[in-house]
Design brief:
Elements lengths: L1 H27 L11 E76 L2 E64 L2 E9 L6 E6 L2 E4 L6 E4 L2 E6 L2 E9 L2 E64 L2 E76 L58 E2 L2 E2 L26
Antiparallel strand pairs: 1-10, 2-9, 3-8, 4-7, 5-6, 11-12
Length: about 475
């Protein structure tokens, strides 16, 4: 279908080109009036939109209530007595003896002697004298005097008073309140619920309680009620005890004090003093001295000293010991015991009731929709020798034809007489060709006038493009 439309388009463009060439020739050359006028046609393509109605279905949801019978189970508690059998193990001690043999090494001490004799050398002192002559320089001291004049600064002391400022610190005592923690650890009883079986069934005496909603006292009869189970635990909890204490704090505040302080001022005055100072003069005089010097000579005397030193030698002697060790063995004996136990058994009793259940139902509602389907219509148009169309279709063209301006008329006698335009009653009506006019020629064995228009696509499906139905170029 797309190829057929392309062939029709190409044929139309070829005819338009031929008409333009003929119009150029006829417009530029000298007009020739023929005896019999020729009628020229051009294929004109236009798009026609046809209305089409399609029925679609819209989905709506509706809520429907149904009555269903539901079976639920409620617990019924019963008390039963059962026998609980359990095994108890008991330890029976048995005493026996076993022999232990071991080798014990005992020390045996023996006394041995080693020779430690040595030579002892003693020195005998002998005294003798010898003469020594020496020259000794003896010091002779003589006293003499000399006169010295010197200037002395004699101090003169005077007392003056000066103002001296000093900083003194006076103690100031203030009291501050401190809180000391005198607390300690106390025993606190805490009630905790176990992880499982938190409630138990217990007998409650008749009492008066208050309704938590209205606050009105309500009489509660005696009977069995579910009571929460608690387990008492004693915990060591630290309990603080803050005790106020007055703490004295002494601070020293600086104070400036002015005092009159006596100051000793010393001044020095010059004074000359003449003194006679004795001094000693030393003179050395040589003198020969003879003296006898005693000296001691040591003569060695060797003596042999015999000495035996005893020492202990330890020798280990192996000895086998046999002893009996008591051994206690425990024998495990199992006994089976039977104990009656009261057990509460929960039995589920079925209860039937009718419940209304909502269910959503899907419903399809038909909806009619109208839309327009395009269709290409091919129709011949009569043109003059210059290519100017005599009739132009008022419908919208899918591809506008190139506009060709007609040349200005030179004279009324040179232009051929044009036939009046014919009006079509419907867009599908084909014009009637005159018997003298030749029909459209065939192109590649396909009749040009009999070319089929683009077939309309089914409802809801767009028309095929010029590239084919498969969408490939």
């Amino acid at each position: 279908m797309a190829k057929r439309v392309l062939w029709i388009w190409s044929l139309g463009f070829m005819l338009v080109g031929v008409g333009l060439a003929t119009a150029g020739d006829c417009c530029t050359s000298t007009p020739v009036v023929s005896a019999q006028p020729a009628v020229t046609y051009r294929l004109d393509y236009r798009t026609v939109y046809e209305p089409q109605t399609v029925t679609a279905y819209r989905i709506e949801y509706e809520t429907v209530y149904e009555d269903r019978e539901v079976t639920s189970y409620r617990p019924v508690w019963e008390t039963q007595t059962q026998e609980r059998r359990y095994r108890v193990e008991r330890q029976i001690p048995e005493t026996s003896e076993r022999e232990e043999r071991r080798i014990v090494y005992k020390p045996v001490w023996e006394t041995h002697y080693r020779d430690a004799s040595y030579d002892r050398v003693t020195y005998v002192q002998e005294t003798a004298e010898r003469e020594e002559r020496s020259t000794v320089w003896q010091q002779v001291v003589e006293t003499q005097e000399r006169q010295e004049i010197r200037t002395v600064l004699r101090p003169v002391t005077q007392t003056e008073y000066r103002t001296q400022y000093s900083t003194m610190y006076q103690p100031v005592t203030t009291y501050q309140t401190y809180y000391a923690d005198r607390g300690g650890f106390v025993d606190q009883v805490t009630l905790k619920q176990p992880a499982i079986f938190r409630n138990r069934l217990a007998w409650m005496p008749p009492t008066t309680t208050f309704d938590p909603t209205t606050g009105i006292p309500v009489h509660q009869p005696g009977g069995l009620y579910w009571v929460p189970r608690y387990r008492a635990e004693v915990q060591r909890v630290y309990q603080p005890n803050f005790v106020p204490q007055q703490v004295a704090q002494t601070t020293y505040m600086p104070t400036t004090v002015a005092q009159q302080v006596p100051v000793q001022v010393t001044s020095y005055q010059q004074e000359q003093i003449v003194e006679r100072i004795p001094y000693q003069v030393s003179r050395w005089v040589p003198q020969e001295v003879v003296r006898k010097v005693p000296y001691t000579v040591s003569r060695p005397v060797t003596e042999r000293v015999e000495q035996k030193i005893p020492y202990q030698v330890c020798r280990w002697v192996a000895e086998e010991e046999v002893r009996k060790v008591p051994v206690t063995t425990y024998k495990t004996v199992y006994e089976e015991r039977v104990e009656p136990v009261t057990v509460r058994v929960c039995r589920m009793e079925p209860v039937k009731e009718i419940v209304r259940v909502a269910r959503t139902v899907e419903k399809r509602v038909p909806v009619e929709t109208s839309y327009y389907v395009p269709r290409v219509v091919c129709s011949p148009v009569v043109v003059d020798p210059c290519g100017v169309p005599v009739y132009s279709s008022p419908s919208v063209l899918s591809t506008p034809a190139p506009s060709v301006s007609s040349p200005p008329a030179t004279s009324s006698s040179s232009q051929p007489t044009l036939a009046p335009p014919k009006t079509f009653s419907s867009p599908d009506e084909k014009p009637t060709l005159p018997p003298s006019a030749p029909g459209p020629e065939k192109v590649d064995g396909r009749p040009a006038s009999g070319a089929k228009a683009a077939e309309p696509s089914p409802p809801g499906k767009p028309a095929d493009s010029v590239y084919g139905t498969s969408g490939s170029k």
